[in-house]
């Protein structure tokens, strides 16, 4: 016990002494005393603070300085949330054995025909189809067909 006190800092020792005093104090109380305190707690508690009303997202935006230009609910709160967008050329399933045998120059056959449009996915949800274009020596996607918002919602359910 003396060895443990030599290895502790004064702050840790003060905290340990406080805990020891609290435990000793609690040891003197009986279960009846604890039950009586618990039963008195709701009556002695302060009245709850009034709840603030939640913002109605379907209402018009409070600031009219910047028009949103979007129909429907107030989307101002979510417009700056980043999402992940990806373009899928195609997919296939292969065994782990074949996956481990892939090396530079290997060809993997996909489930799409050449010239078929790519799938444009946002957070894994299909939102459009498109074709590959080159702009200033960089690849890009020209959207050829955008899935309607109602169709996207139907797919989520």
Automatic annotation (TrEMBL):
Compartments in which it is found: Cell membrane; Bacterial flagellum basal body
Membrane topology: Peripheral membrane protein
Keywords: Bacterial flagellum, Cell membrane, Cell projection, Chemotaxis, Cilium, Flagellar rotation, Flagellum, Membrane
Gene source species: Pseudomonas songnenensis
Protein name per its UniProtKB record: Flagellar motor switch protein FliN
Pfam families to which the protein is assigned, alphabetical: FliMN_C (PF01052)
Domain Flagellar motor switch protein FliN-like C-terminal: 78-147
Biological classification of the source: Bacteria, Pseudomonadati, Pseudomonadota, Gammaproteobacteria, Pseudomonadales
Record-level GO BP terms: bacterial-type flagellum-dependent cell motility; chemotaxis
Coiled coil: none
Entry function: FliN is one of three proteins (FliG, FliN, FliM) that form the rotor-mounted switch complex (C ring), located at the base of the basal body. This complex interacts with the CheY and CheZ chemotaxis proteins, in addition to contacting components of the motor that determine the direction of flagellar rotation.
InterPro entries named among the record's database cross-references: FliN, FliN-like_C, FliN/MopA/SpaO, FliN_T3SS_HrcQb, SpoA-like_sf
GO cellular component: bacterial-type flagellum basal body; plasma membrane
PANTHER family xref list: FLAGELLAR MOTOR SWITCH PROTEIN FLIN (PTHR43484:SF1), PTHR43484
MF annotations from Gene Ontology: cytoskeletal motor activity
Family: Belongs to the FliN/MopA/SpaO family.
